[in-house]
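Researcher: Here's the sequence for the chain we discussed earlier.
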Amino acid sequence: MIETVLSWLYDNLYNYMIPICALCVLRIVVCLLELNHIRRLRDKKSVFRFVGSQYREIGTFTGILIGSVLVCLLPRLGLLFAAAAAALGVIGYRIGRCKGDEADRLWQEVVNQLSANEQPVNPIHVENNIHGLIDTLDVFDEAPAEDAQDASPTQPNQ
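Model: Thanks. This is the structure I predict for it:
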């Protein structure tokens, strides 16, 4: 029974490992894009968001990606490298957590200093999912009411 399962896994290795690698790359790219978006919000509109979850995901998916690529390169040691992928994912998560906590702590200090100096600051904490990103984009892409009235053409009196 175990021999049958292992032979099926080895025969269909690339059918499931290549999509796993592609999904890991895709998630890493999305997290990097989210970090870039957060940086632009911080620079342009003084909006500060926590970024620890993005760093944790980058670390986790980088570890899983390394293990998955090793599985694809050396398929006969696939189970060993699958276990290594899980271990690398945990190690990557811990490294990302340290980096993310450090970045969050740094930006929290900046927000506290700006608040103490009574400068306008928009500290927000949004869930790390697509709904939180959409909510953030909706909030900060809306034009203020005065700008909307100024932009509308004036109607002549009849």
